[in-house]
Protein backbone atom coordinates (compact mmCIF):
# COMPACT_ATOMS: atom_id res chain seq x y z
CA UNK A 1 0.00 0.00 0.00
CA UNK A 2 1.22 3.45 -0.87
CA UNK A 3 0.82 5.61 2.22
CA UNK A 4 0.98 9.37 1.59
CA UNK A 5 3.70 11.27 3.45
CA UNK A 6 4.05 15.01 2.96
CA UNK A 7 7.03 16.88 4.39
CA UNK A 8 7.89 20.35 3.32
CA UNK A 9 9.25 23.76 4.16
CA UNK A 10 7.18 26.42 2.45
CA UNK A 11 6.79 30.17 2.23
CA UNK A 12 3.12 29.82 1.30
CA UNK A 13 0.03 29.88 3.48
CA UNK A 14 -0.83 26.51 5.04
CA UNK A 15 -4.00 25.13 3.46
CA UNK A 16 -5.44 22.68 5.98
CA UNK A 17 -8.23 21.53 3.67
CA UNK A 18 -5.81 20.66 0.92
CA UNK A 19 -3.26 18.98 3.19
CA UNK A 20 -5.96 16.89 4.86
CA UNK A 21 -7.32 15.79 1.48
CA UNK A 22 -3.83 14.73 0.42
CA UNK A 23 -3.47 12.33 3.37
CA UNK A 24 -7.01 10.92 3.31
CA UNK A 25 -7.35 7.39 1.91
CA UNK A 26 -10.52 5.46 1.19
CA UNK A 27 -9.89 3.57 4.43
CA UNK A 28 -9.40 6.74 6.50
CA UNK A 29 -11.96 7.65 9.16
CA UNK A 30 -10.06 9.97 11.50
CA UNK A 31 -7.47 12.74 11.42
CA UNK A 32 -5.65 14.52 14.21
CA UNK A 33 -4.11 17.81 13.14
CA UNK A 34 -1.86 20.08 15.15
CA UNK A 35 -1.14 23.61 14.06
CA UNK A 36 1.05 26.17 15.77
CA UNK A 37 0.53 29.86 15.20
CA UNK A 38 2.37 33.08 15.96
CA UNK A 39 1.32 34.39 19.38
CA UNK A 40 0.93 38.16 19.45
CA UNK A 41 0.82 38.16 23.23
CA UNK A 42 2.60 35.68 25.45
CA UNK A 43 1.73 35.40 29.15
CA UNK A 44 3.85 32.40 30.19
CA UNK A 45 7.42 33.08 31.34
CA UNK A 46 8.57 36.59 30.39
CA UNK A 47 5.25 38.12 29.35
CA UNK A 48 5.72 40.01 26.10
CA UNK A 49 4.22 41.25 22.88
CA UNK A 50 5.32 40.01 19.45
CA UNK A 51 5.00 42.06 16.27
CA UNK A 52 6.07 39.24 14.02
CA UNK A 53 8.38 36.25 13.80
CA UNK A 54 10.97 35.63 11.16
CA UNK A 55 11.53 31.95 10.46
CA UNK A 56 14.46 30.44 8.66
CA UNK A 57 15.36 26.84 7.89
CA UNK A 58 18.25 24.76 6.68
CA UNK A 59 15.85 23.59 4.01
CA UNK A 60 17.24 20.32 2.63
CA UNK A 61 18.13 19.02 6.09
CA UNK A 62 14.84 20.24 7.57
CA UNK A 63 12.87 18.33 4.95
CA UNK A 64 14.97 15.21 5.54
CA UNK A 65 14.38 15.46 9.29
CA UNK A 66 10.65 15.96 8.74
CA UNK A 67 10.69 12.75 6.73
CA UNK A 68 12.51 11.15 9.66
CA UNK A 69 9.81 12.37 12.08
CA UNK A 70 7.20 10.78 9.80
CA UNK A 71 9.19 7.53 9.70
CA UNK A 72 9.43 7.53 13.51
CA UNK A 73 5.64 8.02 13.73
CA UNK A 74 5.02 5.07 11.39
CA UNK A 75 7.37 2.89 13.40
CA UNK A 76 5.59 3.71 16.68
CA UNK A 77 1.99 3.76 15.34
CA UNK A 78 1.83 1.37 12.39
CA UNK A 79 -1.92 2.06 11.96
CA UNK A 80 -1.21 5.60 10.78
CA UNK A 81 -2.22 6.02 7.13
CA UNK A 82 -1.24 9.51 5.97
CA UNK A 83 1.18 11.99 7.51
CA UNK A 84 1.76 15.66 6.73
CA UNK A 85 4.56 17.70 8.31
CA UNK A 86 4.76 21.24 7.01
CA UNK A 87 6.67 24.24 8.33
CA UNK A 88 6.07 27.70 6.94
CA UNK A 89 9.04 30.09 6.98
CA UNK A 90 9.54 33.80 6.34
CA UNK A 91 7.99 36.78 8.09
CA UNK A 92 4.88 35.63 9.92
CA UNK A 93 2.42 37.75 11.87
CA UNK A 94 0.30 36.95 14.95
CA UNK A 95 -2.56 34.48 14.41
CA UNK A 96 -0.88 32.96 11.34
CA UNK A 97 -0.51 29.16 11.33
CA UNK A 98 3.20 28.40 11.04
CA UNK A 99 3.44 24.64 11.34
CA UNK A 100 1.17 21.68 10.76
CA UNK A 101 1.40 18.04 11.75
CA UNK A 102 -1.47 15.84 10.63
CA UNK A 103 -1.95 12.10 10.95
CA UNK A 104 -4.79 10.00 9.60
CA UNK A 105 -6.00 6.50 10.50
CA UNK A 106 -9.05 4.31 10.06
CA UNK A 107 -10.29 5.03 13.60
CA UNK A 108 -9.76 7.69 16.24
CA UNK A 109 -8.78 5.35 19.07
CA UNK A 110 -5.62 3.71 17.76
CA UNK A 111 -3.04 6.45 18.26
CA UNK A 112 -3.83 9.25 15.84
CA UNK A 113 -3.84 11.93 18.55
CA UNK A 114 -0.67 10.59 20.17
CA UNK A 115 1.05 10.41 16.78
CA UNK A 116 0.31 14.07 16.00
CA UNK A 117 1.50 15.09 19.45
CA UNK A 118 4.70 13.10 19.02
CA UNK A 119 5.20 14.71 15.62
CA UNK A 120 5.14 18.31 16.85
CA UNK A 121 7.30 17.50 19.89
CA UNK A 122 9.85 15.81 17.67
CA UNK A 123 9.82 18.57 15.05
CA UNK A 124 10.71 21.05 17.77
CA UNK A 125 13.67 18.87 18.76
CA UNK A 126 15.40 17.87 15.54
CA UNK A 127 14.12 19.83 12.52
CA UNK A 128 16.55 22.70 11.79
CA UNK A 129 14.26 25.72 11.81
CA UNK A 130 14.79 28.88 13.86
CA UNK A 131 12.72 31.91 14.61
CA UNK A 132 13.58 35.45 15.52
CA UNK A 133 11.03 37.42 17.47
CA UNK A 134 10.48 41.07 16.59
CA UNK A 135 8.71 43.10 19.26
CA UNK A 136 8.39 46.67 20.46
CA UNK A 137 11.74 46.42 22.26
CA UNK A 138 13.77 45.01 19.40
CA UNK A 139 14.53 41.59 18.04
CA UNK A 140 15.72 38.38 19.63
CA UNK A 141 16.32 34.82 18.47
CA UNK A 142 14.10 32.29 20.22
CA UNK A 143 16.33 29.80 21.99
CA UNK A 144 15.76 26.07 21.65
CA UNK A 145 17.17 23.73 24.25
CA UNK A 146 17.26 20.24 22.78
CA UNK A 147 20.64 18.70 21.99
CA UNK A 148 20.20 15.84 19.50
CA UNK A 149 21.86 12.55 20.36
CA UNK A 150 24.06 10.61 17.95
CA UNK A 151 21.89 8.98 15.28
CA UNK A 152 19.01 11.44 15.66
CA UNK B 1 43.68 18.80 2.54
CA UNK B 2 39.90 18.48 2.27
CA UNK B 3 37.78 21.18 0.71
CA UNK B 4 34.56 21.69 2.71
CA UNK B 5 31.58 24.00 2.72
CA UNK B 6 30.35 25.63 5.92
CA UNK B 7 26.80 26.91 6.43
CA UNK B 8 25.79 29.15 9.32
CA UNK B 9 22.26 29.70 10.61
CA UNK B 10 20.44 31.94 13.10
CA UNK B 11 22.63 33.34 15.90
CA UNK B 12 25.72 31.67 14.47
CA UNK B 13 25.21 33.33 11.10
CA UNK B 14 24.73 36.70 12.80
CA UNK B 15 28.07 36.28 14.59
CA UNK B 16 29.88 34.87 11.56
CA UNK B 17 28.54 37.76 9.47
CA UNK B 18 28.07 35.39 6.52
CA UNK B 19 25.74 32.57 5.49
CA UNK B 20 28.43 30.29 4.19
CA UNK B 21 32.08 29.92 3.40
CA UNK B 22 34.39 27.33 1.94
CA UNK B 23 37.69 26.23 3.41
CA UNK B 24 40.45 23.67 3.17
CA UNK B 25 41.07 21.56 6.26
CA UNK B 26 43.48 18.75 7.17
CA UNK B 27 42.12 15.35 6.12
CA UNK B 28 41.94 13.97 9.63
CA UNK B 29 40.29 16.98 11.25
CA UNK B 30 37.53 16.12 13.73
CA UNK B 31 34.48 18.21 14.57
CA UNK B 32 36.26 19.13 17.80
CA UNK B 33 39.27 20.24 15.76
CA UNK B 34 37.04 22.19 13.38
CA UNK B 35 35.46 24.06 16.30
CA UNK B 36 38.92 24.97 17.58
CA UNK B 37 40.02 26.12 14.15
CA UNK B 38 36.88 28.28 13.77
CA UNK B 39 37.41 29.77 17.26
CA UNK B 40 40.91 30.78 16.25
CA UNK B 41 40.18 31.97 12.72
CA UNK B 42 36.92 33.77 13.61
CA UNK B 43 37.13 35.13 17.17
CA UNK B 44 33.47 36.22 16.95
CA UNK B 45 32.48 32.57 16.82
CA UNK B 46 34.53 31.46 19.83
CA UNK B 47 31.71 31.89 22.37
CA UNK B 48 29.19 30.19 20.05
CA UNK B 49 31.32 27.05 19.71
CA UNK B 50 30.40 26.00 23.28
CA UNK B 51 26.75 25.25 22.53
CA UNK B 52 26.67 24.97 18.74
CA UNK B 53 25.01 22.06 16.96
CA UNK B 54 26.97 20.76 14.01
CA UNK B 55 25.87 18.61 11.11
CA UNK B 56 27.92 16.72 8.54
CA UNK B 57 26.04 16.22 5.28
CA UNK B 58 22.72 16.98 7.02
CA UNK B 59 23.11 14.56 9.93
CA UNK B 60 23.92 15.65 13.47
CA UNK B 61 27.62 15.14 14.18
CA UNK B 62 29.62 15.00 17.40
CA UNK B 63 33.05 16.02 18.58
CA UNK B 64 34.98 12.89 17.62
CA UNK B 65 33.57 12.57 14.08
CA UNK B 66 36.13 13.12 11.33
CA UNK B 67 35.07 15.61 8.66
CA UNK B 68 34.91 13.75 5.32
CA UNK B 69 36.07 15.16 1.95
CA UNK B 70 33.70 17.69 0.32
CA UNK B 71 31.52 17.73 3.42
CA UNK B 72 28.64 20.13 3.82
CA UNK B 73 28.99 21.26 7.42
CA UNK B 74 26.30 23.34 9.10
CA UNK B 75 26.60 25.17 12.41
CA UNK B 76 23.56 26.42 14.29
CA UNK B 77 22.01 26.85 17.73
CA UNK B 78 19.44 24.37 19.11
CA UNK B 79 16.39 24.46 16.84
CA UNK B 80 13.36 26.59 17.69
CA UNK B 81 10.86 25.99 14.89
CA UNK B 82 7.20 25.19 15.12
CA UNK C 1 -12.38 37.95 27.83
CA UNK C 2 -14.68 36.85 25.03
CA UNK C 3 -13.70 33.31 24.07
CA UNK C 4 -14.98 32.11 20.68
CA UNK C 5 -17.17 29.02 20.69
CA UNK C 6 -18.58 27.67 17.45
CA UNK C 7 -21.15 24.88 17.44
CA UNK C 8 -23.16 24.04 14.39
CA UNK C 9 -24.87 21.46 12.25
CA UNK C 10 -24.31 22.24 8.61
CA UNK C 11 -24.95 20.85 5.15
CA UNK C 12 -21.93 22.71 3.76
CA UNK C 13 -18.37 21.56 3.29
CA UNK C 14 -16.20 21.92 6.40
CA UNK C 15 -13.62 24.66 5.86
CA UNK C 16 -10.81 23.94 8.29
CA UNK C 17 -8.89 27.12 7.44
CA UNK C 18 -11.89 29.29 8.17
CA UNK C 19 -12.91 27.46 11.35
CA UNK C 20 -9.36 27.61 12.70
CA UNK C 21 -9.15 31.35 11.97
CA UNK C 22 -12.41 31.89 13.85
CA UNK C 23 -11.04 30.34 17.05
CA UNK C 24 -7.55 31.88 16.91
CA UNK C 25 -6.92 34.73 19.34
CA UNK C 26 -3.88 36.98 19.58
CA UNK C 27 -2.77 34.89 22.55
CA UNK C 28 -3.21 31.57 20.70
CA UNK C 29 -0.14 29.49 19.88
CA UNK C 30 -1.51 25.98 19.38
CA UNK C 31 -4.53 24.18 17.95
CA UNK C 32 -5.55 20.54 18.05
CA UNK C 33 -8.11 19.63 15.43
CA UNK C 34 -9.91 16.34 15.02
CA UNK C 35 -11.80 15.51 11.87
CA UNK C 36 -13.75 12.37 11.07
CA UNK C 37 -14.39 11.36 7.51
CA UNK C 38 -16.52 8.81 5.67
CA UNK C 39 -14.62 5.53 5.32
CA UNK C 40 -15.15 3.88 1.95
CA UNK C 41 -13.63 0.64 3.19
CA UNK C 42 -13.77 -0.59 6.77
CA UNK C 43 -11.55 -3.44 7.95
CA UNK C 44 -12.33 -3.52 11.68
CA UNK C 45 -15.26 -5.66 12.82
CA UNK C 46 -17.48 -6.69 9.92
CA UNK C 47 -15.27 -5.68 7.01
CA UNK C 48 -17.37 -3.84 4.43
CA UNK C 49 -17.54 -1.25 1.69
CA UNK C 50 -19.51 1.99 2.00
CA UNK C 51 -20.92 3.87 -0.98
CA UNK C 52 -22.04 6.84 1.08
CA UNK C 53 -23.48 7.79 4.45
CA UNK C 54 -26.63 9.71 5.05
CA UNK C 55 -26.52 11.83 8.19
CA UNK C 56 -29.46 13.34 9.98
CA UNK C 57 -29.69 15.39 13.15
CA UNK C 58 -32.22 16.65 15.63
CA UNK C 59 -30.80 20.06 14.82
CA UNK C 60 -31.77 22.38 17.69
CA UNK C 61 -30.97 19.78 20.33
CA UNK C 62 -27.76 18.75 18.55
CA UNK C 63 -26.52 22.34 18.56
CA UNK C 64 -27.44 22.72 22.24
CA UNK C 65 -25.54 19.51 23.09
CA UNK C 66 -22.54 20.67 21.06
CA UNK C 67 -22.55 23.83 23.16
CA UNK C 68 -22.70 21.57 26.24
CA UNK C 69 -19.67 19.60 24.98
CA UNK C 70 -17.80 22.91 24.59
CA UNK C 71 -18.85 23.96 28.11
CA UNK C 72 -17.62 20.64 29.51
CA UNK C 73 -14.27 21.15 27.74
CA UNK C 74 -13.88 24.62 29.25
CA UNK C 75 -14.70 23.29 32.70
CA UNK C 76 -12.08 20.54 32.43
CA UNK C 77 -9.38 22.55 30.59
CA UNK C 78 -9.76 26.20 31.58
CA UNK C 79 -6.73 27.16 29.43
CA UNK C 80 -8.65 26.41 26.23
CA UNK C 81 -9.22 29.61 24.24
CA UNK C 82 -11.39 28.83 21.22
CA UNK C 83 -13.56 25.79 20.51
CA UNK C 84 -15.26 24.68 17.31
CA UNK C 85 -17.66 21.73 17.15
CA UNK C 86 -19.18 21.22 13.71
CA UNK C 87 -21.11 18.28 12.29
CA UNK C 88 -21.94 18.08 8.62
CA UNK C 89 -25.15 16.26 7.68
CA UNK C 90 -26.73 15.03 4.45
CA UNK C 91 -25.41 12.57 1.89
CA UNK C 92 -21.66 12.25 2.34
CA UNK C 93 -19.23 10.22 0.26
CA UNK C 94 -15.98 8.46 1.21
CA UNK C 95 -13.04 10.72 2.09
CA UNK C 96 -15.33 13.62 2.98
CA UNK C 97 -14.76 15.24 6.39
CA UNK C 98 -18.00 14.94 8.34
CA UNK C 99 -17.19 16.30 11.77
CA UNK C 100 -14.67 18.66 13.27
CA UNK C 101 -13.62 19.39 16.85
CA UNK C 102 -10.95 22.03 17.26
CA UNK C 103 -9.50 23.54 20.42
CA UNK C 104 -6.95 26.33 20.69
CA UNK C 105 -4.70 27.41 23.56
CA UNK C 106 -1.59 29.52 24.15
CA UNK C 107 0.68 26.44 24.28
CA UNK C 108 0.54 22.85 23.09
CA UNK C 109 1.29 21.21 26.44
CA UNK C 110 -1.64 22.30 28.61
CA UNK C 111 -4.43 20.02 27.37
CA UNK C 112 -5.30 21.07 23.85
CA UNK C 113 -4.91 17.53 22.46
CA UNK C 114 -6.81 15.97 25.36
CA UNK C 115 -9.59 18.55 25.00
CA UNK C 116 -10.10 17.76 21.30
CA UNK C 117 -10.11 14.04 22.06
CA UNK C 118 -12.65 14.53 24.82
CA UNK C 119 -14.78 16.61 22.46
CA UNK C 120 -15.12 13.97 19.76
CA UNK C 121 -15.71 11.19 22.30
CA UNK C 122 -18.44 13.23 23.96
CA UNK C 123 -20.04 14.26 20.68
CA UNK C 124 -20.42 10.60 19.80
CA UNK C 125 -22.17 10.00 23.12
CA UNK C 126 -24.68 12.81 23.53
CA UNK C 127 -25.14 14.83 20.33
CA UNK C 128 -28.28 13.58 18.50
CA UNK C 129 -26.96 12.78 15.05
CA UNK C 130 -27.40 9.47 13.24
CA UNK C 131 -26.00 7.98 10.10
CA UNK C 132 -27.27 5.39 7.68
CA UNK C 133 -24.74 3.47 5.69
CA UNK C 134 -25.45 2.73 2.04
CA UNK C 135 -23.37 -0.06 0.55
CA UNK C 136 -23.48 -2.61 -2.26
CA UNK C 137 -25.74 -4.87 -0.17
CA UNK C 138 -28.28 -2.26 0.82
CA UNK C 139 -28.64 0.27 3.60
CA UNK C 140 -28.34 0.04 7.34
CA UNK C 141 -28.45 2.48 10.25
CA UNK C 142 -25.21 2.64 12.21
CA UNK C 143 -25.96 1.69 15.80
CA UNK C 144 -24.69 3.79 18.68
CA UNK C 145 -24.40 2.24 22.11
CA UNK C 146 -24.19 5.04 24.67
CA UNK C 147 -27.15 5.61 27.00
CA UNK C 148 -27.00 9.14 28.44
CA UNK C 149 -27.37 9.46 32.19
CA UNK C 150 -29.79 11.87 33.88
CA UNK C 151 -28.49 15.42 33.54
CA UNK C 152 -26.34 14.70 30.49
CA UNK D 1 -55.12 16.70 28.91
CA UNK D 2 -51.76 18.01 27.65
CA UNK D 3 -51.10 18.64 24.00
CA UNK D 4 -47.60 17.49 23.04
CA UNK D 5 -45.46 17.16 19.93
CA UNK D 6 -43.55 13.96 19.15
CA UNK D 7 -40.48 13.84 16.90
CA UNK D 8 -39.02 10.59 15.56
CA UNK D 9 -35.52 10.09 14.22
CA UNK D 10 -33.49 7.40 12.46
CA UNK D 11 -34.73 3.83 13.02
CA UNK D 12 -37.63 5.05 15.13
CA UNK D 13 -38.83 7.34 12.35
CA UNK D 14 -38.56 4.48 9.86
CA UNK D 15 -40.78 2.32 12.08
CA UNK D 16 -43.22 5.12 12.91
CA UNK D 17 -43.52 5.95 9.21
CA UNK D 18 -43.60 9.67 10.08
CA UNK D 19 -41.25 12.37 11.28
CA UNK D 20 -43.60 13.86 13.82
CA UNK D 21 -47.07 13.82 15.24
CA UNK D 22 -49.08 15.67 17.84
CA UNK D 23 -51.21 14.10 20.52
CA UNK D 24 -53.17 14.75 23.70
CA UNK D 25 -52.05 12.90 26.81
CA UNK D 26 -53.19 12.80 30.45
CA UNK D 27 -51.58 15.56 32.53
CA UNK D 28 -49.74 13.17 34.85
CA UNK D 29 -48.39 10.82 32.18
CA UNK D 30 -44.77 9.75 32.74
CA UNK D 31 -42.22 8.84 30.08
CA UNK D 32 -42.81 5.22 31.05
CA UNK D 33 -46.55 5.75 30.52
CA UNK D 34 -45.90 7.47 27.19
CA UNK D 35 -43.85 4.51 25.98
CA UNK D 36 -46.68 2.15 26.94
CA UNK D 37 -49.24 4.33 25.17
CA UNK D 38 -47.09 4.44 22.00
CA UNK D 39 -46.59 0.65 22.12
CA UNK D 40 -50.34 0.20 22.21
CA UNK D 41 -51.31 2.90 19.69
CA UNK D 42 -48.47 2.12 17.25
CA UNK D 43 -47.65 -1.60 17.36
CA UNK D 44 -44.72 -1.02 14.95
CA UNK D 45 -43.01 0.98 17.69
CA UNK D 46 -43.44 -1.61 20.44
CA UNK D 47 -40.09 -3.31 19.88
CA UNK D 48 -38.29 0.05 19.61
CA UNK D 49 -39.57 1.23 23.00
CA UNK D 50 -37.15 -1.15 24.78
CA UNK D 51 -33.99 0.72 23.79
CA UNK D 52 -35.27 4.13 22.72
CA UNK D 53 -33.75 7.36 23.99
CA UNK D 54 -36.31 10.01 24.85
CA UNK D 55 -35.90 13.74 25.31
CA UNK D 56 -38.26 16.29 26.81
CA UNK D 57 -37.68 19.79 25.42
CA UNK D 58 -34.23 18.74 24.11
CA UNK D 59 -32.91 17.23 27.35
CA UNK D 60 -32.54 13.50 27.93
CA UNK D 61 -35.49 12.21 30.01
CA UNK D 62 -36.02 9.02 31.97
CA UNK D 63 -38.91 6.72 32.79
CA UNK D 64 -40.24 8.48 35.88
CA UNK D 65 -40.23 12.01 34.42
CA UNK D 66 -43.70 13.51 33.96
CA UNK D 67 -44.35 14.96 30.50
CA UNK D 68 -45.01 18.71 30.89
CA UNK D 69 -47.65 20.68 28.96
CA UNK D 70 -46.77 21.54 25.34
CA UNK D 71 -43.66 19.38 25.57
CA UNK D 72 -41.50 18.66 22.53
CA UNK D 73 -40.74 14.97 22.94
CA UNK D 74 -38.19 13.25 20.70
CA UNK D 75 -37.64 9.51 20.35
CA UNK D 76 -34.51 8.08 18.80
CA UNK D 77 -31.93 5.29 19.01
CA UNK D 78 -28.51 5.84 20.65
CA UNK D 79 -26.68 8.49 18.66
CA UNK D 80 -24.14 7.54 15.97
CA UNK D 81 -22.81 10.83 14.61
CA UNK D 82 -19.28 11.88 14.00
Describe the protein.
- The complex is a heterotetramer, with 2 copies of chain A (152 residues) and 2 copies of chain B (82 residues).
- By secondary structure, chain A is of the alpha+beta class.
- In chain A, 26% of the residues lie in helices and 35% in strands.
- Chain A has helices at 16-22, 59-76, 112-126, and strands at 5-10, 30-37, 41-42, 48-49, 52-57, 83-88, 90-92, 97-105, 129-135, 138-141.
- In chain A, the strands form 3 sheets. Chain A has a 4-stranded mixed β-sheet with strand order 1-6-8-2, sandwiched between helices.
- The model of chain A has no long low-confidence stretch (mean pLDDT 97).
- Chain B is 22% helix and 30% strand.
- Chain B has 2 helices and 5 strands.
- Chain B has a 5-stranded mixed β-sheet with strand order 2-1-5-3-4.
- The model of chain B has no long low-confidence stretch (mean pLDDT 96).
- Chain C binds chain D through residues 36, 55-58, 60-62, 64, 87, 98-99, 120, 123-132, 141-150, 152, and chain D through 7, 9-11, 14, 53, 55, 58, 60, 62, 74, 76-82.
Low-confidence stretches of chain A: none
Return the average pLDDT of chain A rounded to an integer: 97
Instruction: List the strand order in the largest sheet of chain B.
Output: 2-1-5-3-4
Q: Number of DSSP strands of chain B?
A: 5
Largest interface: A-C, 36 and 36 residues
User: How much helix, percentage-wise, in residues of chain A?
Assistant: 25-40%
The topology string of helices and strands of chain B comes to EHEHEEE
Write the layout of secondary structure elements.
The complex is a heterotetramer, with 2 copies of chain A (152 residues) and 2 copies of chain B (82 residues).
Chain A: E1 5-10, H1 16-22, E2 30-37, E3 41-42, E4 48-49, E5 52-57, H2 59-76, E6 83-88, E7 90-92, E8 97-105, H3 112-126, E9 129-135, E10 138-141
Parallel strand pairs in A: 1-6
Antiparallel strand pairs in A: 2-8, 3-4, 5-7, 5-9, 6-8, 9-10
Helix pairs in contact in A: 2-3
Chain B: E1 2-8, H1 10-16, E2 20-25, H2 31-41, E3 53-56, E4 59-61, E5 72-76
Parallel strand pairs in B: 1-5
Antiparallel strand pairs in B: 1-2, 3-4, 3-5
